Amino acid sequence: MTSTERELAFLSASEQVEKFRQKKLSPVEVTKAVVARMERLEPKLNAFVLRDPEGALKAAQASEARWQKGQPLGPIDGVSATIKDLFLTKGWPTLRGSTLTKRDQPWEEDAPPVARLKESGAVILGKTTMPEYGWKALGDCPLTGISRNPWDLERTPGGSSTGAAAATAAGIGALALGTDGGGSIRIPCHFTGLPGLKPTFGRVPAYPASPFGMLAHTGPMARTVQDCALLLTVLTGADDRDPYALPRDGADYRAGLEDGIKGMKIAFSPALGFAKRVDPEVAEAVARAARALADLGAHVEEVDPGFADPREAWLTLWYAGAAKALATATPAERKRLDPGLLVHVERGEKISAVQYLAADVARADLSRHMQFFHRRYDLLVTPSVAVPALKVGTDLSDPGVEKEWIDWTPFSYPFNLTRQPAASVPCGLTRAGLPIGFQIVGRLYDDKTVLRAARAYEKAHPPAQAPLD
After folding, report:
1. Which of 13, 178, 240, 316 has the fewest CB atoms within 10 Å distance of its CB?
2. pLDDT digits over 380-416, tens only?
């Protein structure tokens, strides 16, 4: 291992593209460094369900030829990326962390975000691990076993965008596709020291439709906010296969990214008014981040948004989605499921249509409440997750007060219900060296302001890199 490998592997996508444009660096050089890193660290991390080093190098060579001619396919041509194993990918199986998915079937279609990566010339390294059907925010599943956090191999990288976070934080790929139905981008970003965005629902088109309905968002994960904005620019726009996708508006989410936050009105809520427990080190770091936003010129006020914990509404929709996802599973197949997922499926099967619709009404009421809240505040800031990364093999942080994994992440799932954009931004480390993130929530459809605030903080407080080598 040389210092050059690490330096190349940790270059941001934005830095890479600029160097490609200036012919100071080749996509082949970067890809070779990233592939070498992937091959060496993957046995420690277990971040991939499928790796394609040969295909990545071939794609990098094609990209190099395009850059030599000054004809890149798009703004991420030659940049390495990973795909969560929830997205259909032509020629590769999509297993969703489950032993139940049959590999020997035609895989002839790319999901919209995968198609956008390919159309823009990304170098795809492989598909990343996830818990079975994305049912929890932890990094293990029956298919691939335990994935590990590059900050501490005895800790989980979180989930459900598990391997996406672990690989990106370890310098294996500059860009990653993630999904978020209750925090599945923001939680692993908090656990691994990355910025990541759950965009407004529909901003990134999805296909097939998620069984979890409008809870499920698709979005970017990276090592810089600039790269999140770059990847979001590539991914957005309508796709005929997604009837809920927002129309293509041609927006470049890098525009205005450096404009700062002077004069913005930001609400800071340390506990959302209902979180039972927030780790003291997390609380302290997020409070410092809120003060830092004020130092950058924002008007920051400590205030709760004023809604009750929507836990039961979210769980009702989540349980029903789990039941829908496994509706055709046979009794023998059910025995092979992650036991916790089977519990969720069985609970979902008992939910009536009236209960489901009542939860959906609660979702709409909460969304309306936040619309009115954002008449007064441009942004809401909270912790991303109440605790640092859990130890592998642990489902609960404090079994005395927690019943489900969502009980240690009370800040994430409310904003899946409301469909709002929400980002996790690194804001320091615990005394044990584990990352901490804070959450920035914006008005519905105002992804740009969320990214702008995240970038302002990141510029003033650059995050550390995971030490794993």
Report:
1. 240
2. 999 999 999 999 999 999 999 999 999 999 999 999 9
Low-confidence ranges of the chain (pLDDT < 70): 1-3
Residue 3: per-residue pLDDT: 54
**The CATH number fitting domain 3-460, selected from 3.50.30.60, 3.90.226.10, 3.90.1300.10, 3.40.1190.20:** 3.90.1300.10
Peptide bond into 208 cis (omega under 30): yes
Q: Which residues are catalytic?
A: 84, 160, 184
123, 330, 379, 451 from 175: Cα distances, Å: 10, 37, 26, 16
Whole-Å CA distances, 416 to 3, 225, 347, 348: 41, 21, 20, 19
pTM across the whole model: 0.98
pLDDT of residue 140: 97
Q: Write phi, then psi, for 91 (nearest 5 degrees).
A: 85, -10
Would you state the structure tokens that stand for residue 203, as one six-digit string? 């901003």
Biggest CA-to-CA distance, the chain: 62
Would you state the pLDDT for residue 2? 46
